[in-house]
Write a structure and sequence with these properties.
The complex is a heterodimer of chains A (364) and B (373).
Chain A lengths: L2 H16 L1 H21 L7 E6 L5 H12 L3 E3 L7 H6 L5 E4 L5 H6 L3 E8 L3 H16 L12 E9 L6 H32 L1 H7 L4 H30 L8 H25 L3 H17 L22 H15 L3 H30 L1
Parallel strand pairs in A: 1-2, 1-3
Antiparallel strand pairs in A: 3-4
Helix pairs in contact in A: 1-9, 2-7, 2-9, 7-9, 7-10, 7-11, 7-12, 9-10, 10-11, 10-12, 10-13, 12-13
Chain B lengths: L6 H17 L1 H21 L7 E7 L4 H11 L4 E5 L8 H4 L5 E5 L3 H8 L1 E9 L3 H23 L7 E8 L6 H31 L2 H7 L4 H31 L7 H26 L2 H18 L12 H6 L4 H15 L7 H26 L2
Parallel strand pairs in B: 1-2, 1-3
Antiparallel strand pairs in B: 3-4
The chains are: A alpha/beta (364), B alpha/beta (373).
Chain lengths: 364, 373
């Protein structure tokens, strides 16, 4: 690498880390964010506020209630107003379990036991979960004449790679990907847009440096900064959240390099369309919002409509999320690793080519 | 010199800001068009009804009973059954991301069932995707009952019949749940980003110092800067509302006035947050980074948009009290679907007002301090 590019890199790095607040943003925030999201987020359904309505003498009903609250999924609520609809509408309870008028005990005695469950379905996912929970609880109560898990046909379920269904194991690789993407794309696009806004880019063009030296000098520092964050977030994932690291670090490193290069060239591409930093920021948002939504971190991608099923294939985040999860949790199945790496590299190469070409042209 | 608040001076600053916005059609389109586009696009895409789950089947017991079990899986709509061609390592297709679950029926299943009236199969689920794993687990309960009925030839009546009514969203349409939430996320992020940059830019190119040397007072600058963006934000909200009603048929059961008020308060907090960021950073690159970290990721992750707040550890639940999107999320969903009253929403509304006042005070304090040498 020649001295000009090295000089560029030095200047750009110095500029990025000169501001102590920027240093915090670059090296401390990713760790805090990983920790925060890893600790806080869970897609389990629990702490459902349940109101049980029944006669005081209906022992069977209170037995059911006891089982519900002992399960850990539900928490009791006490309200003065027992109108189930109003209780749900005001948000004081998420679900109301109502015994029949004759009492659950006597209805089961007659062989026609029934219960009514009203669920606030504002959150459709949660509502379905609540019904499944109550059904499971009723099916497990021998007092109600349930046969229990033994006898009859049964399904033994085994959850692979994450037997205790811990959310961090599933989420942390995804969050890692989001943080790296935010850092690199935003930094790159805004740094180039700033030079354009301040007019220093024109000075550079007038200076006796080659175009490709400017391009490399402006992008390589952000590749380095992005890669510097990889071991940080990876460390938090593995040591703090005990996310398994079954695959090879080499594969992770390879995937990270390809991803960071792709992200940096995306940032460069965005900056070529922007006249100032505000536009660069908007462009960054325009790319990142869909990219995050379609990365498979927030919701499963298996069900998106067929007409747009090809869109995620243009998303570098998606490949990186698949790669991180597969390598970390499953040990990196060769066909998955290489096909995703190849696809991401192809996408990255296209990005690099287009962005450099456009950048080159805008420099003229 | 007039030390009071001169509204007209604020208006002139607003006028200048409006001219600036209008001159830049790109930003204008982004601010107003983006929310509608994003909400519509993602409203269609985001879907929590997991169907056609790829399931690999290993049937080592080639009997009628075992085929009956597979039939139930096939005809359930939930699963897309694929026969395993490599029975050596049953979980290989999961490693290769080809299937989400594996059904294994061991040899002797039918015999077991005939002799004891009890038999079991094994289902292994890919735990790398927690969300899908939970949903598959839920489906299996229904499958179990269907298989039981098919094998024993008699309807299985549970001892207690549970009649469930899903209020406010009878058909469990997950779009009704996603769209009102998505609206909050999109509008919140855009507002923070826009204001964060506008003031940071003035610091960066020095025009803020110029502005401060004029008789305009900090509060007037703040009001003048925020007013145009509030209008932009409200326009965005209106478009999103229309999209939600027309494109997705989401009902609106609450009061428009209440919803409008909540949106206004929320825009106030988002804009004030952007303002604080820009006053603190005074540099666009840093402002953008801060806006992303304090605005974008928390709105996605900690607002209850997808990950329920109720499931967080208690400390974090209290921490989310400081996040405005969390409160508008509650209001938006209840106003669209439940039709909650002012009293039901007093806490979220109050919190929004409190957060807004807090952020504006911080912004003003910071501004004032900068004035003194």
């Amino acid at each position: 690498m020649n001295a000009t590019v090295r000089g560029f890199i030095k200047k750009e790095m110095a500029q990025a880390v000169r501001d102590p607040r920027m240093r915090i943003m670059l090296f401390v925030m990713p760790v805090i964010q990983m920790t925060l999201f890893g600790l806080a987020l869970s897609n389990e359904i629990k702490n459902v506020k349940l109101l049980v309505v029944g006669q005081p003498g209906d022992h069977m009903m209170w037995k059911v209630a006891e089982h519900c609250f002992a399960s850990g999924w539900f928490v009791p609520v006490s309200v003065s107003n027992l109108d189930p609809f109003e209780v749900l509408q005001s948000g004081k309870a998420d679900a109301v379990l109502i015994a029949p008028e004759e009492g659950l005990g006597s209805s089961v005695g007659r062989g026609a036991g029934r219960l009514q469950l009203l669920v606030d379905a504002t959150n459709a996912v949660r509502a379905r979960g609540v019904e499944t929970y109550i059904q499971a609880i009723l099916a497990s109560m021998p007092e109600l004449g349930a046969r229990g898990p033994t006898g009859g046909f049964s399904i033994q379920t085994r959850v692979l790679y994450n037997p205790s269904m811990r959310t961090p194991v599933f989420l942390v690789p995804g969050v890692m990907c989001l943080i790296l993407c935010l850092l690199t794309i935003v930094l790159t696009s805004m740094s180039i847009a700033r030079e354009r806004e301040a007019g220093t880019l024109e000075t550079l063009i007038a200076a006796p440096v080659k175009k490709w030296e400017i391009i490399l000098g402006k992008t390589i520092p952000y590749v380095i900064l992005g890669l510097a964050d990889v071991p940080l977030v990876l460390g938090v994932a593995v040591f703090l959240f005990k996310v398994p690291m079954k695959g090879s670090l080499l594969e992770i490193a390879l995937a990270s390099i390809v991803f960071v290069c792709t992200a940096v060239s995306t940032g460069t591409l965005i900056s070529t369309f922007a006249r100032n930093q505000q536009q660069a920021m908007m462009g960054g948002f325009l790319f990142m919002f869909p990219a995050i939504q379609l990365s498979g971190v927030m919701f499963p991608l298996d069900n998106i409509p067929a007409a747009i099923a090809w869109v995620p294939y243009l998303n570098p985040l998606r490949y990186f999320v698949v790669l991180l999860r597969n390598i970390m949790l499953k040990g990196g199945e060769p066909t998955v690793v290489w096909s995703n790496l190849a696809a991401m590299a192809a996408l990255g190469a296209a990005m690099v080519f287009i962005s450099f070409k456009r950048f080159h042209r805008t420099l003229n | 010199m007039n030390r009071g608040l001169d509204f007209w001076r604020a208006i002139s600053i607003a006028k200048k800001e409006i001219r600036h916005i209008l001159r830049d059609p790109f930003t204008l389109t982004m601010a107003v068009g983006m929310p509608v586009l994003l909400v519509t696009f993602f409203g269609f895409i985001i879907n929590f009804d997991v169907q056609d789950i790829a399931l690999s089947v290993i049937n080592r017991d080639h009997t009628r009973a075992s085929r009956d079990v597979v039939d139930v899986f096939t005809s359930s709509n939930y699963f897309n059954v694929k026969n395993n061609t490599n029975p050596g390592n049953p979980f290989q297709p999961v490693d290769a991301e080809k299937v989400k679950a594996v059904l294994v029926i061991e040899k002797g299943f039918a015999k077991e069932w005939r002799e004891h009236g009890a038999a079991s199969v094994q289902v292994a689920i890919d735990g790398a995707d927690n969300q899908a794993a939970g949903i598959i687990g839920n489906y299996l309960a229904g499958i179990r009952k269907a298989v039981q009925e098919k094998l024993s030839g008699q309807e299985m009546k549970p001892p207690v019949e549970l009649r469930t009514r899903f209020l406010f969203n009878e058909e469990l349409n997950s779009r009704w749940f996603v769209v009102p939430g998505l609206a909050v996320v999109v509008i919140g992020i855009l507002s923070i980003l826009l204001t964060a940059l506008t003031v940071a830019r003035e610091w960066e190119n020095g025009s803020m110092e110029l502005l401060l040397s004029t008789p305009v007072r900090p509060l007037e600058i703040i009001i003048g800067k925020l007013l145009p963006y509030t209008v932009l934000g409200l326009a965005g909200v209106t478009f999103v509302y229309v999209a939600a009603r027309l494109a997705f048929g989401v009902p609106f059961r609450g009061s428009h006035l209440l919803f409008g008020l909540a949106c206004l308060l929320f825009l106030g907090t988002a804009l004030a947050q952007g303002l604080v960021i820009s006053v603190v950073t005074r540099q666009q690159q840093l402002a953008m980074q801060m806006a992303n970290i304090t605005g974008m990721l928390p709105s996605f992750m900690l607002s209850g948009f997808i990950f329920p707040i109720e499931s967080m550890p208690v400390v974090f639940q209290y921490l989310t009290f400081l996040l405005a999107p969390r409160w508008l999320m509650i209001i938006s969903r209840s106003e669209f679907l439940k039709g909650s009253t002012f009293l039901d929403l007093a806490l979220p509304l109050g919190m929004l007002a409190l957060i807004m006042t807090l952020l504006l005070t911080i912004a003003l304090k910071k501004f004032k301090k900068d004035l003194e040498p």
